[in-house]
């Protein structure tokens, strides 16, 4: 094996210190997959993005000591869900959500595994307090399963949808959905509609693609989209998404 699996008690991790008691009603979010990140370019790009965003959803986070040090220089409290540990360095790898406010609640789901190595793909859910709001914001950070057929992909998405359908307040869902063919894309949009979410548009659409299809998405419910954009970067093989949102 090239990795080791976390025990159930080791899946959820947290570090960093929040700088605010709640997220403002108008805030900026960044969604970025750090896959194949180059340390120097990634660190400088991430630092700039973190200064602009109040909320950060990251996928394929390899939390090495060097990366963790950069993450902890931000104004965020970080929560993560670990898929596996690298054998070299024992670094936790998975998804991570950073926010200027501490979450009220954190949970994870791992409904599907990649074939061959059986690596679980994580869905991380956090409830974030909002200033002068009746309900907190449900933030779901998802890295969808990749090298499988449509049934495993559907199981993965429906596991995330169950979290969304059980919540009546505002929702933000973002991440790398690995929606690289027509079947996956149709299924994604069908499940998103059933949960009452809307897709955040990006124009010009400079999102990273595979087989001509965008991989990264941001969906919302109970939020107004004020502005959105994609930043072209050399810090990763995915371009980060940015959106300015407001609680309705």
UniProtKB/TrEMBL annotation:
One Pfam family it belongs to: Exo_endo_phos
InterPro entries in alphabetical order: Endo/exonu/phosph_ase_sf (IPR036691), Endo/exonuclease/phosphatase (IPR005135)
GO MF annotations in UniProt: catalytic activity
Domain Endonuclease/exonuclease/phosphatase: 50-238
Superkingdom of source: Bacteria
The name this protein goes by in its record: Endonuclease/exonuclease/phosphatase domain-containing protein
Taxonomic classification: Bacteria, Pseudomonadati, Elusimicrobiota, Elusimicrobia, Elusimicrobiales
